[in-house]
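To whoever is on call:

I kicked off a structure prediction for a single chain this morning and the downstream step that reads the tokens threw a length-mismatch warning. I double-checked the sequence; it's 502 residues and nothing unusual in it as far as I can see. Pasting both halves so you can look.
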Amino acid sequence: MSARSSAPVAGPAAEVTTRPDPRRWLVLAVIAAAQLMVVLDLTVMNLALPSAQRALGFSAADRQWVVTAYALSFGSLLLFCGRLADLAGRKATFLTGLVGFAAASAVGGASVDFPMLVTARACQGAFGALLAPSALSLLTTTFQDPKERARAFGVYGAVAAAGGGLGLLLGGALTSYLSWRWCMYVNLVFAAFAITGGALLVGRQRRTPGGRLDVPGVVAVSGGMLCLVYGFSNAASHSWGTPLTWGLLAAGVALLTVFAAWQARTAHPLLPPRIVLDRVRAGAYLTILVSGAGTFGVFLFLVYYMQVTLGYSAVRSGVAMLPMVVLSGAMAVLGNTRLMPRFGPGPMVIAGMLLNAAAMVWLTRIGAHSGYGAALLGPLMVIGAGMGLVFGMAAATGTFGVAPRDAGVASASINTGQQLGGSIGTALLNTIAAGATSGYLAGHVRGRPTPEMLQLAAVHGYTTVFWWCAGIFAAGAVVCGALLPRGPLTARQHGRAPAGYE
């Protein structure tokens, strides 16, 4: 990413450093470890759920809450915690988030019953909501040189793009060879490294001068996000037609509408309109939302296909994802350091989305007895390349041109888009898969279906989802590509200097 600007502009919000921090690359390693811990926990428990259910004796209906509790607290508190990082100081919230996340993980791993596990997961989500925007905003304010910032965001994007797949691999390995509890305990390793490094290496961070917490805004947006995430989760586990689903979604939309109106009127908005009304940043937030909705089809339904239809073990299905993980990380770094400075975010998003769409179309050729090399390896590599381009671009573009006083809430907006997109994708694609599977059985089976017919129906459900994901990515390439500019990002595109120079 390239940023051309004149001399720094002095001002009360300026956090200009005349000399780069000599420890900045070590700080990047600390931030990457912390972000990896948060991203891993979005998927690491998925493969451990059956083992945890047997150990603690909770029902299949309750099982969803182990995942949903994390998503609810994480998604609903992101914007509040992002602004808190700006007001209280990013180092303080970063370390608090790390300590709290580690403590919640330890409690979760030691759980003796279902309520204890769900409470620990909810606390993980809450502290993750404090940690994630703090980590990204620290990255934004630590790296000022455009070339160095491009490399740093490339590493961050690689973690964001590859973390979900690594979570599946790690969750499968830990569950198979140790215990489901280690899917929680492993966070203590990441947290110990990040806490030590954060305390010793991260410099003192300035707070937003004269800032106040927008309490009505916090209540409205947290309540709205809670209702939306819970509503979509309820639709995925029950149905779209239940009164609870529609009631929650309606309440979420109403609260977010109130929130938007309030932000335009209050003197100290939680999410200043200047953050999201900027066309380039808005394009980045929409990109991450669309990508979050579409990539859900990769992580959930491919795991179902590999384990249920092809009979892969948890470890084997995780290893099968490795080509996607490696390529997504490599393309995120390459995209930010080589492609973004030359072509800009627009072409990167279009290329990434179209690669993902092509991979999804390729996946529609799977069958009940397909081989890995013939049916899965190629699409997984293409998906990895596409995800790397999209996630690497979104993190850098979503915080470009933001003053240090807004770095936390701008970072939280990226995470909010990803969380909301994932929730929408979960509900929508689950419903589509269930409907396609039922329709196939109704049209091909008379009487009791055979195991072979059930497999064919399941594969039909998966391929239907992949067609829908291809459509989501194709639409994203058109819409998001139109919002994002071609060519290197410059201060003129935002009407202000890049972050750190306001």
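Update from on-call: the warning came from a stale cache, not from the record. Cleared it. Sanity check on the structure: The chain has two domains: 24-203+270-493, 214-269.
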